[in-house]
Amino acid sequence: xxxxxxxxxxxxxxxxxxxxxxxxxxxxxxxxxxxxxxxxxxxxxxxxxxxxxxxxxxxxxxxxxxxxxxxxxxxxxxxxxxxxxxxxxxxxxxxxxxxxxxxxxxxxxxxxxxxxxxxxxxxxxxxxxxxxxxxxxxxxxxxxxxxxxxxxxxxxxxxxxxxxxxxxxxxxxxxxxxxxxxxxxxxxxxxxxxxxxxxxxxxxxxxxxxxxxxxxxxxxxxxxxxxxxxxxxxxxxxxxxxxxxxxxxxxxxxxxxxxxxxxxxxxxxxxxxxxxxxxxxxxxxxxxxxxxxxxxxxxxxxxxxxxxxxxxxxxxxxxx
Length: 320
Known about the structure:
Layout (H helix, E strand, L loop, with lengths): L1 E6 L4 H11 L4 E7 L8 H4 L11 E2 L8 E4 L6 H6 L8 E4 L14 E2 L2 H9 L3 E3 L3 H15 L6 E7 L14 H4 L4 E2 L8 H11 L7 E7 L6 E8 L4 H11 L6 E4 L14 E8 L2 E8 L7 H11 L16
């Protein structure tokens, strides 16, 4: 049984992580740490878990575990990792952006299984990808692998949970409901990791990746609409995607443009490929809290410990 510790256990991603791990046949949650909620039952914060756990938030970290999941805010994981005792010999999966880029990775492997499947298996430290980055890379990896990428254009929309649990002027209900807005055009923080992955597969890629993120008026899910100029036929392009994603248990190439409801509450990524004149149009959808965060983190844990990659992740979508 894999003993798990969760650091920063009060947020959305930690809540989803706890929910998955409570039903994972090979994992046991040893503790859930939260400085702000220490002493309170986990179900006081994650109320969907009432009746499923008696765990209580703790303040202190127990390092006698097999793996630590870091669910803290961006910028806080690095200081935590630097303070880990040298005696700790477990594995680390970080859900922040602190170690995703190569120049600051410090031994962390970028944890996108569709890209680094074998490297993840051999690692002890994983930098879990960003949610937008996961959806967008699913739409681009097969093209980069075939050295077919040129200038990329992306519009992608995300639910409000992508901004985290803390309320802000752009997340509270009265502003977000019946509303949509663009933010961080052409400068979103996930562009760095996307660009590095494209170069990993297509080393001579030097074109722009133009990304316009959109805030949606719903809680969870990402839809990425991506297009490039391409001489490939629709059939040839779709074949590239089908071949590339063979053996990846959560990524499916579909015939019709997918929608968010097909993936909410699952670890799936659905991707479609269409040709319109000279434009190749790719649509990908994921649940930002699962395939974009906690589900993918457990997928990485499974790979680290030699388990079936899909263990504990057979989650059901919500049709309506």
